[in-house]
Specification:
Blueprint lengths: L1 H7 L1 H21 L2 H21 L1 H10 L7 H16 L1 H11 L6 H26 L3 H25 L3 H22 L12 H36 L1 H40 L1 H28 L1 H8 L5 H31 L3 H54 L5 H18 L9 H21 L1 H13 L1
């Protein structure tokens, strides 16, 4: 079932993020580092605005909407909640623009506010659709904004190059698709209905601690941007953001190939067979998740030099060469924790465990990031985040295993890791063409080598699965 659901979500998880990667790389050729830094800051603060304003409701939706015996109180409340939560984005974005000295640019302010509110609403509606298995609506959210928004931004940059054009392109498209999403999810007649206070208390009781945990998690990932901007300025932030964005986003996309379908499936297993059944389902997800993320991080490190020469603007190359492998490693460790250990806490309905872990991670990563920046510049800051993330991931898995019964297939994980390391060593051999097309050869060779090695080390498990299916 997990594989079938994963393939259903595959277009949404590949095409939209591919457009985001193209945008991240294209901006290195068309924007100055300071403009790139400002866009990166706007994107990061929008994620924070979503966490502060709406994530509590989204968390409740994903966890409980599919299993509600009577969904009518939820439906009566959601329109008003979305409207009020959308408005909560405005002061957060205004504060960010004010602190960077851009409140005196009306067009940028208007584009940024529209972008933030519409992106938060789109994100919530996409997650709502995913929780109910509505693959089409989820795919619309994942594809339309990144692809059409990027295209419109390019068109606007031809008229007035700069940050405002990029942000406005996304904002216009995201606002335009809201009526379509509302119609598909039958929200158009729900906004003015009375709100049941009980559903709000239940939602905030579950989602409130996760809101705080999400804010702390945001700080763990994006706090490096704040440290660098405060310590070195927008130019340094722009130089950092290319490698940091690429590493984080590449790994996040690989993770969602599995996780888009995995958590809703675990929720259904918990509803049908109890909490332990849901946790066991998360444990089964671990093989796929480790088997995709670990080789991805090692592969990124192996092809960093040719990748940067081929696609990154010259002004950004030196910094990106140092930052990209560290960003991918930090993202891999954090995504493994997020989509395995953290989800155990959610299935077990103990979000305070997640809150405590995220608080420790935020403090540790920020502290080590500051120390790293002072001692080693931008790479030192990345190493600080990597160290803090790793420590807290180990702690998270220990808690999930010892207290909540998460069982990881450690032998299979070790075998896949060994195959990944061997693949990385072979990809780094000096036998590939030096031209840009040689990068494609390296990537294809790496994928083939890993699939071959993974198939060999996982042969006993594959044989067991095939035997069980033949008996069925």
């Amino acid at each position: 079932m997990l594989l079938r659901q994963t393939f259903a979500y595959l277009p949404a998880q590949l095409v939209g993020p591919l457009a985001q990667f193209v945008a991240v790389l294209a901006w290195t050729h068309w924007l100055a580092p300071a403009d790139y830094g400002l866009i990166s800051l706007i994107l990061a603060v929008q994620e924070l605005a979503f966490l502060v304003g709406m994530s509590w409701w989204t968390h409740y939706t994903v966890r409980y909407l599919p299993a509600l015996a009577d969904p009518e109180p939820y439906r009566r409340a959601e329109g008003a909640v979305m409207a009020l939560c959308g408005l909560c984005q405005i002061p957060v974005m205004g504060l960010a623009l004010g602190l960077t000295g851009h409140l005196d640019e009306p067009a940028l302010v208007a584009a940024t506010l529209a972008f933030a509110v519409s992106r938060s609403l789109n994100s919530h509606l996409g997650e709502r659709a995913r929780s109910l298995g509505d693959v089409v609506t989820y795919t619309i959210v994942q594809l339309t904004g990144p692809i059409l928004g990027f295209g419109l931004g390019l068109a606007l940059m031809a008229v007035a190059p700069g940050t405002t054009a990029v942000v406005a392109g996304f904002a216009v498209v995201q606002v335009a698709i809201l009526p379509l999403l509302a119609g598909r999810l039958r929200l158009l007649n729900r906004i003015l209905l009375p709100v049941d206070g009980a559903i709000l208390r239940a939602a905030f009781g579950y989602g409130g601690p996760l809101l705080i945990a999400g804010g702390l998690g945001w700080l763990s990932v994006n706090g490096i941007r704040l440290v660098v901007e405060h310590g070195e300025g927008l130019v340094a932030l722009g130089l950092l953001s290319v490698g940091w964005n690429l590493g984080q986003r590449l790994i996040a996309v690989v993770a969602t190939l599995v996780t888009a379908a995995a958590f809703p499936l675990a929720v259904r297993q918990a509803a049908q067979g109890g909490t332990q059944a849901g946790i066991d389902q998360i444990g089964r997800t671990a093989i796929l998740l480790f088997g995709l993320l670990v080789p991805s991080a090692i592969g990124i490190a192996a092809i960093t030099d040719p990748l940067i020469r081929a696609v990154v603007g010259a002004e950004f190359q030196d910094a990106t060469r140092l930052i990209l492998p560290l960003a991918a490693a930090a993202a891999t460790i954090r995504n493994l924790r997020m989509h395995l250990a953290d989800q155990v806490f959610l299935i077990a309905e103990h979000p305070r465990s997640l809150l405590a872990l995220n608080a420790a991670e935020a403090v540790l990563t920020m502290l080590l990031c500051v120390i790293g920046l002072l001692a080693g510049g931008l790479p030192g800051a990345c190493l600080g985040v990597l160290a803090g993330t790793t420590f807290c991931a180990v702690a998270g898995f220990a808690i999930a295993s010892l207290r909540y019964g998460l069982r990881l297939p450690l032998r299979d994980i070790a075998a896949l890791t060994a195959a990944s390391v061997a693949m990385g060593l072979l990809v780094r051999l000096d036998v590939y063409p030096a031209e840009n097309w040689g990068l494609a050869v390296q990537v294809a060779a790496g994928a083939a080598i890993y699939l071959l090695l993974a198939g060999l080390v996982m042969r006993p498990m594959i044989a067991t699965i095939l035997a069980s299916r033949s008996k069925a």
